[in-house]
Design brief:
- The structure is a single chain.
- A six-stranded parallel beta sheet has the order 2-1-3-4-5-6, sandwiched between helices.
- The chain contains eleven helices and six strands.
- Helices cover about 50% and strands about 10% of the residues.
- The protein is an alpha/beta fold.
- The radius of gyration is 18 Å and the shape is elongated.
- Helix 8 packs across helix 10.
- The protein has two domains: about 15-145, Response regulator (Rossmann fold, 3-Layer(aba) Sandwich), CATH 3.40.50.2300; about 145-225, Arc Repressor Mutant, subunit A (Orthogonal Bundle).
């Protein structure tokens, strides 16, 4: 899976000093194994939690939390909200089974910075965490529906074809986590103009919230590609 936010080798510009990773896994042996693997393979300071998740969050104060939403009660957005209330700059990465496409997409729509399959192992986690710390969104290919199948089921392909090139560019980069100001810098436009493209494009597709834009990007397979250049 390519780094969808940064260019070049993500590890060359990665700052390990700021990266504290909390791994939540109810199985203590598995939690310890993941922690050890991350610290041996990537430049992370890692803590494992198999008990009180919120207590561990407050004590360790991570930059990124890795968790499988199946191990926690409630919807993914509940945990995004709880985490952001306690640590506003902390991100959440979903680590789910390969068959958990629906769960992965729910997590991405809720504001998770990525979804990686258990099948990818430590290598996949390191790659996803690196992309997340660079400000990107990581989506395992097994969780991203193909554009052809999504279009056949939802009609999104036909809807997307009504977008102008810049409307598509703006919406895709919104889904990838870029702010209006960052997108404006890429296009050499004002933030107000970018907001106009965003509103117009979203209106054509019937998308009202950022989570709707992310879901559309997933269905259209926008996040399985590197960002377009204009």
């Amino acid at each position: 899976m390519d780094d969808i936010r940064a260019t070049g080798d993500p590890f060359l510009s990665f700052n390990p000093i700021l990266t504290r990773v909390l791994v939540f896994e109810p199985n203590p042996l598995l939690a310890t194994s993941i922690r050890s693997g991350l610290e041996l393979t990537g430049p992370f300071t890692t803590e494992a939690c198999s008990g009180d998740f919120l207590e561990a969050l407050a004590a360790f104060r991570p930059n990124i939390v890795v968790l499988d939403p199946a191990h926690l009660p409630g919807l993914p957005e509940t945990y995004v909200s709880k985490i952001s209330q306690r640590l506003p700059n902390c991100e959440v990465l979903a680590y789910v089974t390969e068959s958990g496409r629906k769960s992965a997409q729910q997590c991405l729509a809720a504001g998770f910075v990525g979804a990686v399959s258990h099948a990818r192992g430590i290598e996949g986690l390191v790659e996803a965490l690196t992309v997340a710390r660079l400000g990107g969104i990581y989506v395992d290919q097994c969780f991203a529906p193909t554009a052809s199948s999504a279009a056949a089921e939802t009609g999104d392909g036909e809807a997307s074809s009504r977008l102008s090139e810049r409307e598509r560019f703006v919406l895709e980069h919104v889904a990838r986590g870029f702010s209006n100001k960052e997108i404006a810098g890429k296009l050499g436009l004002s933030s107000k103009t970018v907001e106009t493209y965003r509103s117009r494009g979203a209106g054509k597709l019937g998308l009202r919230r950022k989570s709707d834009i992310v879901q559309h990007a997933l269905r259209s397979d926008w996040l399985g590609e590197r960002p377009d250049r204009l």
